[in-house]
Specification:
Elements (H helix, E strand, L loop, with lengths): L1 E3 L4 H4 L4 H8 E2 L8 E6 L5 E5 L6 E2 L15 E7 L4 E5 L2 E5 L4 E4 L6 E5 L8 E7 L7 E3 L7 E3 L8 E7 L10 E7 L5 E2 L4 E2 L3 E8 L7 E7 L2 E7 L4 E4 L6 E4 L4 E8 L8 E2 L7
């Protein structure tokens, strides 16, 4: 499990493009018939993907965690961005179609990932954070996720937001999780941009045509940088960084956070004219 160190804004000012990509871009989330994780020192979040094909995959612990089982002191949020599949948590089976989510709380010992069809496997995006309290395992379909339509054609950011794990949805200790789907012809996400010093964030870009890219904006509002991101690649966003972007086509992305609170609207907005 690769470890990503926490990078300060002053350190990031000196980075080349290659260094920015090495420290903030996760180029490979899904690996066939594997559970693949990385560990970041931003709020000690672990994130990655599970892609079961012919075989089911069992969530194991890692030496980094120094725990008897993965969720001994952790919770995990999961969103399926692939074909139909299921997750078995301590013997209880949960069927997940595309864009369905599952939260599994601290203390669950057995987690098994399965695909219904090896030719169209489930692709489970995973984000885990330390937990101090137990909350029940809960599934939420996209139709239950209070979809909200935002943006306009004029600003090229017509989109639908689905909120799963947050203060008004599935309860957790500190994980907040949902996704955004951009409509055809729209390319901008999270603009006007914002930061939130109280928590980190990770993006997973998906449903992006393989030959297209997203230009992901990061950095301090008055000194922005960018990363060029492909389908099924993820971004680590520090608390001091904006997280926004524009694609060469429409796309979808998961936003997943951990930190100080569960309030989805806890954002420090930056006006477009203030960006540099």
């Amino acid at each position: 499990m690769k470890i990503y160190q926490a990078i300060s804004e002053k350190e990031a000012q000196t980075f080349t493009t290659a260094q920015l990509r090495e420290n903030f871009l996760i180029e490979s989330i899904f690996k066939s018939n594997e559970i693949h994780f990385v560990y970041t020192h931003y709020d000690r979040v672990v994130l990655g993907g599970a892609l079961p094909t012919m075989d089911e995959l069992t969530l194991q612990t890692y030496d980094n965690l120094k725990s008897d089982y993965f969720l001994e002191r952790r919770e995990i949020g999961i969103i399926n961005v692939g074909g139909n599949g299921s997750i078995e948590a301590d013997g209880v089976n949960y069927e997940l179609s595309k864009l369905d989510a599952l939260y599994i709380g601290k203390g669950v010992k057995s987690v098994i990932f399965k695909s219904n069809d090896a030719d169209n496997p489930a692709q489970f995006f995973l984000l885990s954070a330390p937990a101090h309290q137990k909350f029940p395992t809960q599934k939420m379909g996209k139709e239950e996720a209070s979809p909200v339509s935002l943006g306009t054609v004029e600003t090229a950011n017509e989109r639908t937001i689905y909120k799963y794990i947050h203060l008004g949805g599935i309860q957790s200790c500190q994980v907040v999780m949902g996704l955004t789907v951009l409509k055809n012809g729209s390319v901008w996400n999270t603009m006007p941009a914002h930061v939130h010093d109280r928590r980190m964030e990770a993006y997973l870009y998906f449903d992006l045509n393989p030959e297209h890219r997203v230009f992901h904006l990061m950095g301090q509002p008055q000194e922005t940088r960018h990363l060029v991101v492909a389908n099924h690649q993820a971004i680590l966003s520090p608390p001091w960084s904006i997280h926004s972007g524009a694609g060469t086509s429409n796309y979808s992305f998961i936003w997943a956070m951990a930190g100080e609170n569960l309030d989805f609207t806890d954002m420090d907005f930056v006006q477009i004219a203030e960006l540099r």
